[in-house]
Amino acid sequence: MKREVRFAEIAVVGGGPAGLCAALEAARAGARVVLLDRQDHLGGQLIKQTHRFFGSKSHRASQRGFKIAEALTREVASHPAVEVHTGATVFGFYEDGVLGVEQKGRVFYLKPARVIVATGAAERTLAFPNNDLPGIYGAGAVQTLVNVYGILPGRRVLMVGAGNIGVIVSYQLLQAGMEVAAIVEAAPVIGAYWVHAAKVRRAGVPIYTSHTIKEAYGKREVEGAVIWQLDGDGKPIPGTEKDLAVDTICLSVGLSPLIELLAQAGCRLAYVPELGGHVPLRDENLQTTVPGVYVAGDAAGVEEASAAMMEGALAGLHAAYSLGYGQQDYEARRAAIREQLEALRSGPVGEKIRRGLSKAIIQL
Amino acid sequence: MLPVDGIPTPEDIMAKMPPPERLARGPVVMVECFQQIPCDPCTHACPRQAILPMKDINEIPRVDYEKCNGCGQCISVCPGLALFVVDLTYSEEEALVKLPYEFLPLPAEGQVVAGLNRAGEEVCPARVVKVVATEKMDKTAVIWLAVPKNMAMEVRHLKVKPRGTTVICRCEDVTLEEIEHLIKVEGVRTLEEIKRLKRCGMGPCQGRTCLPLIAREIYRLCGTEPDSLAWPTYRPPVIPLKLGVLAGGGSDDAQA
Amino acid sequence: MRIEQHPILEFRRGKKVKFIFDGKEYEGYEGETIAAALHAAGIRVMRESPVLHRPRGLFCAIGNCSSCLMTVNGEPNVRICTEKLREGMVVNSQKGKGVLYEKRS
Fold this sequence. Notes:
The complex is a heterotrimer of chains A (364), B (256) and C (105).
Chain A: E1 5-13, H1 17-29, E2 33-36, H2 65-77, E3 82-85, E4 88-94, E5 98-103, E6 106-117, E7 121-123, E8 136-138, H3 139-148, E9 156-160, H4 164-176, E10 179-185, H5 194-201, E11 207-209, E12 211-217, E13 224-229, E14 242-244, E15 248-251, E16 255-257, H6 260-265, E17 269-272, E18 277-280, E19 293-295, H7 305-322, H8 330-345, H9 351-360
Parallel strand pairs in A: 1-2, 1-6, 2-3, 6-19, 8-15, 9-10, 9-15, 10-11
Antiparallel strand pairs in A: 4-5, 5-6, 7-16, 12-13, 13-14, 17-18
Helix pairs in contact in A: 1-2, 1-7, 3-4, 4-5, 7-8
Chain B: H1 2-5, H2 10-16, H3 20-23, E1 28-31, H4 41-45, E2 83-87, E3 94-101, E4 112-116, E5 122-132, E6 141-148, E7 157-159, E8 167-169, E9 174-175, H5 176-184, H6 191-198, H7 210-222, H8 243-248, H9 252-255
Antiparallel strand pairs in B: 1-2, 2-3, 3-6, 4-5, 4-7, 5-6, 8-9
Chain C: E1 16-21, E2 24-29, H1 34-40, E3 47-48, E4 55-56, E5 69-72, E6 75-79, E7 90-92, E8 94-95
Parallel strand pairs in C: 1-7, 3-8
Antiparallel strand pairs in C: 1-2, 3-4, 5-6, 5-7
């Protein structure tokens, strides 16, 4: 079978916050970029973030996530050096650095000189009886239904997990008109930023730490959930069960980096729990152990979207630089992005990320 | 405790309180940001630079309370919705709390809503003094609430109460809660006042249904016997009549 | 259930289209996914699992988990969380792993 292989300077896989910033940074330096995303729109999961972002005012803080997606998408679309392919799924990373791409039922192959993998992460689930009942969703899934399509999956929800996503999505479900029966968190402390926790709490949502879901029940769909308390060792305490009449359960129990393409490329991976699971080893420029293959965003380790944008920019900048572009202001630009990225990670809430990165970043 | 249930402790709150002498002088910001997170928009939001610049974006915001005039422009900028303005000098009995609000329906100015504390419990009725929602604020409205003075450090959220389902006046759809509020909170004591404030008695039934009910509520809440209560004046027409009928003086059919 | 009013967002919906789900006609909007249109109609059960025959619905909504496979226009195993709704689509609950060329047999 004859296969057409197209050549490209830089391919960016994934058009979320990391991929968009990678494409823009590389294109600004002068490189030609092909940006591929399997959805029919760019922005990745930013499009369903209705809250204002944290971070530095100089870098889009206080803007709502979906507005950042709109702005970045406009910039990418209007940049002549970026060729955007939506509805295009990269399904394989073959030998000699060839990417297999499916777009609208047709397949083509792409051989870029540099690849930036910004595929994001997938929602994790949890093992408990009846955890597959219709009405049990990833928190991100419900966010998509509610904030992208304007559809409520039910009336009353139990949120499992009090990290930033669990608490932010709870707040967004209140805004959309759902009742949030409770947020349960297995850990003894809330993982979310406390200001987020405070704002759902004062809106009347109880947060039960050291609690988890025991089981869901219902005939064909969720009709309720039983939660119970955990002791100091994380073991459930019989007799502490509470029955909640809910028709929806959201699981917000973490994300796993989507690293399949990087594994196929032969990148060395390491299991780093602080970053969400298996992630590629890489250097300070986000280049993996396979020369010319970069990673950025949640695929490199689950973190906030603002950090993903910086990582994307760093990867895009270096990929372009390594092809001979943007030589004159490379150092200054790199220093500026790194400074912003370090500021995001340097505080107490960045401790876990720093610990994870210390295991994932190597000298190449 | 914040990390366990999302509720700041009294000590947490004390540490964020503006100095008493500053509070005594009028509106001032209260920054309920308890954790070092990478975030700095508030430091750029103040037209008087009262929220001090940060060297590191992970710092907790610091305020120059002498510079702050309590304008509240910072409130809608905070991604954590953690900034409030408190004015203890608002009136003899009431304090003013300005807080961020991102829910529908937005309350109306003059409406009485439930004031919620940091645990989401209803602690007092609160009167909406102003609703600020400009384009620049991008859907984070700032609501000015008048609350009893002792609640100024308690009320941090609000709930727009659904109108009750116990209907007193069918013509104007006035509920028992509204009547109770007028009597208990606004100090209303007469049928005449309620008629003018809520139109009870001015609708098609001319008070046939509502006035006895309202009289009973006044008796229940204030002890005023119905016989000592001044009844509003009955004016013609006592039944709904078409204006054309009145003007022509003829029968309905003749006008048609 | 569709959200009519939202404090932050405005939903711009496309053209109204009709589709068939398990033999009954429903309405949805162009531009939304099949999953969204079904949820708007209150339908959350999408298929029956292959071995345990348990009801299954949506889990991730962005094309990762393959929990929501349905038969669309005769073709089984369509991830309806990313497949866009079109006028006249015939959507069926999928039993098990689905059957190709169901119509011919």
